[in-house]
Design brief:
With about 325 residues, this protein is mostly helical. The protein contains 14 helices and 2 strands. It has a two-stranded antiparallel ribbon with strand order 1-2. The N terminus is likely disordered.
Length: about 325
Amino acid sequence: MAAEETIPFDEPTVGGVEPGVNLVRSSWTTSLGAFAGRLPLKAKIGLAILALYILIAIIGPWIAPFDPNATTTQAVPEAPNIHHLFGTSATGGDVLSQVLVGTRATVVLGVATAVVATILSVLVGMAAGYLGGFRDEGLSLLSNIFLVMPALPLLVVILGYLPHTGELPTALVLSALGWAWGARVMRAQTLSLRNRDFVLAAREVGERPWRIIFFELLPNQIGLIAASFVGTFLYAILTSVALAFLGITNFSDWNYGDILFWAQSGSAVELGAWWWYVFPGMAVAILGMSLVLINFGLDELSNPRLRSSRTLRKLGRRNWRPADPTPVILDYVEGKL
C-alpha cells in the first residue's frame, strides 16, 4: 500500500496580498462604506455645502474678478452693483474678491487645526482608555490640565508674540488648546470597548496593544472621530475669525476675519456700508451652519434614540415612535389592533 502523500496547504492570496492584510482592509472599507451609506439628509446637505466651500478655496483666487489688495482714491464705500456684486470697501477694494480669496486661508486653517487636534485626541484618548493604570492617570491628568486652561486669553498672548508667517502658527496653537475635549470622549468610548469579545479574542491570540488599538478599536469609532473632527473644525473657524476681528492675525493673507476687521476699522456701520460686513459675515455663518448640520447628522447616526425617532408607526389610534415607551393598547378590535 503506497504511503499517503502529504500535500502542503497554502492560504489563498488575492492579488498578491496576504489574507490577514486583506481582512484588515476589508474591515476598514466596510466600516467607511456603512458609515457613509447611513448618513442622514442633514449631514449630506452639510457635506454638500462644505464641498462647495472647499471648491471655492481651491479656485477662488483664480476666479476673483479683481485684485483683493487693489485700492482707489475713493473715500466712500460703493454699494453692490453690476461691476462689484458685493460692493467695495472704503479704499475701493472689491469685497467679492476678498471673500473668494479669503475662503482658502479660512478653510485651510480649519482643516489643519482639525487634523492635528483630532490626531492628538485619538492618540491620547485611545491610549489612555486601553492601556489603563498609571498611563491612563497621567494622560487623563494632562487632558484635564488643557481642559481648564483659559483658551482665549492664552491665544491672544501666544499669538501676539509669535511671528505671523502664515496660518501654521495659529493652527498649531489652536490645535494645542483644542484636543483635550476630544481625548476625553475617545477615552470614555475606548473604556466601553476594551472588554468586548472581539478585543478579548485579539488579546488571547497575542496581538500587540498598538495593533488592537488601530485595527480593532479605531474602526469602531469612526463616527465619533468624524464628529470630533467636525467640532474642532467649527471651533477653529469661529476662533480664528474672532482673533482676526481683534486684530491678531496675519494681514498679508486675506481671510473672513480680516475683512470684518477692516470693516470695523473703516466704520462700516457708521457709513451705512452694510455689504462690507454682511457678505463676509454670511460666508462665516453658512460655513458654520454646514458644519453644524454635519455634526447633528453624525450625532443622529450614532444615537439610536435620535435615529429611531424619525420613524413613525401607526399603533391603535396614535402615532408611535420606536424611541417612545411601550404603549398600552386600551381598545382592541378582533383581528386588528
